[in-house]
Amino acid sequence: MHARDFVVIGGGVIGLRIATEVKLRFPDSDVTLLEKEERCGLHASGRNSGVLHAGFYYTADSFKARFTRDGNRRLSDYCVEHELPVNRCGKLVVARSADELDVLDELLHRARLNGVELESVSVEEARRIEPRARTHVRALYSPTTATVDPTQVVAAFAQTACRVGVEVRTGVAYRGRRDDGIETTAGALRAGYVINAAGLYADRIARDFGFASAYRILPFKGLYLHGSDEAPAFRTNIYPVPDLRTPFLGVHLTVTVDGGVTIGPTAVPAFWREGYRGLENFRLAETLEILRLEGILFLLNRAGFRDLALRELPKYLRSVLASRAARLAVGIETRHFKRWGPAGIRAQLVDLERYELVTDFKLEGDEESFHVLNAVSPAFTCAIPFAEYVLDEISERIK
Ligand SMILES: Cc1cc2nc3c(=O)[nH]c(=O)nc-3n(C[C@H](O)[C@H](O)[C@H](O)COP(=O)(O)OP(=O)(O)OC[C@H]3O[C@@H](n4cnc5c(N)ncnc54)[C@H](O)[C@@H]3O)c2cc1C
């Protein structure tokens, strides 16, 4: 293998792990990671629930099924090795009515196929695990679900990347493609191979290289409410039964790494990509494009987009969000959840031919560039084995 210059775009968990893996596999190559912000992890990677998922939601043929179980174990081990806290609090999936019991069975079936530990528990057993849990007839218990602090994980990943010899350049944005590399906000950069892990902007960058023509990223905002000191303490995460037509898991109660509790995240269709608060990062052209796409999805209601939008929008109200969480556990009161935490935005891919939300990770590339599209949840959990797989794919293409 010849030494060549690799440029990785995006300093979230995916870009950082890919850059690390490139350097480990091609130690004679120069590997540069570009992050447009002043620090790595200021977008989805640092603004998520920090849940290390177990891997039972996903159909066996998916990338998500393939990487979540091992990703959970490897990221837990990485945290222990780097002395980062892990709260091995597990998780209950609770049913709200008899209609949801079939989905519990389906999740149990998927867990078996994916080799993931998951138990069906009675109401009494669920209450022994978490006395406040509410469930109808039965629930599922996942012992391997855990929580971490995502900002600590990103910081450690960035240190690991630098330690193995990746040049991490923050405050430098990709601007466009050139014959011999790329144009950045800090000038031209020679690049033998470009890897795009730019999260919310990955589709735009992919198009410069002739990829992602049939896809667009649609931002979905995730809002969180943080419990005050008076909020009840929980022993385990509590999730609802998900709507399997959408890639989202529903508003849940998360036990944070330090034992606090949050309600969220919502999955509200957003109007521009990095609109975390007020008019922050507003871009008119981007908004018009997104509104057009959301309008089409709303009218077609493919895979339940309209139902989702109508269900999610009221959750901007604190009382509505708290009342959704109150269906999962007793003792949830709006007055204990007054503070909104930092919102996160999912870079959700839409298939423009079928007008559907893409559920699995999507990878495209050739002998010059590689593009990670739709690195949505649980890509944080999957980051370590997923990056290794990306490198297997790249190595095949540049043999
Ligand atoms: C609300 C929410 C909750 C979630 N909860 C969980 C969870 O509990 N567990 C889990 O496993 N996953 C969860 N996820 C998913 C997880 O956060 C993401 O899958 C993961 O962080 C994706 O990482 P990334 O590196 O692809 O993207 P990002 O973290 O978004 O990184 C992309 C980076 O690219 C940079 N970039 C963009 N354009 C350019 C450019 N032109 N030049 C240079 N840099 C650029 C951005 O600044 C950004 O830092 C959640 C996501 C959200 C939004």
TrEMBL record:
Similarity comment: family membership: Belongs to the L2HGDH family.
PANTHER family attached to this UniProt entry: L-2-HYDROXYGLUTARATE DEHYDROGENASE, MITOCHONDRIAL
Cofactor(s) required, per the database record: FAD
Protein name as catalogued: L-2-hydroxyglutarate oxidase
Keywords of the record: FAD, Flavoprotein, Oxidoreductase
FAD dependent oxidoreductase domain location: 5-292
Species of the source: Candidatus Kutchimonas denitrificans
Pfam families (UniProt xref): DAO
Keyword Lipid metabolism recorded: no
Molecular function per GO: (S)-2-hydroxyglutarate dehydrogenase activity
Domain of life assignment: Bacteria
Keyword Flavoprotein: yes
EC numbers for this chain: 1.1.3.-
Gene Ontology CC entries for this record: cytoplasm
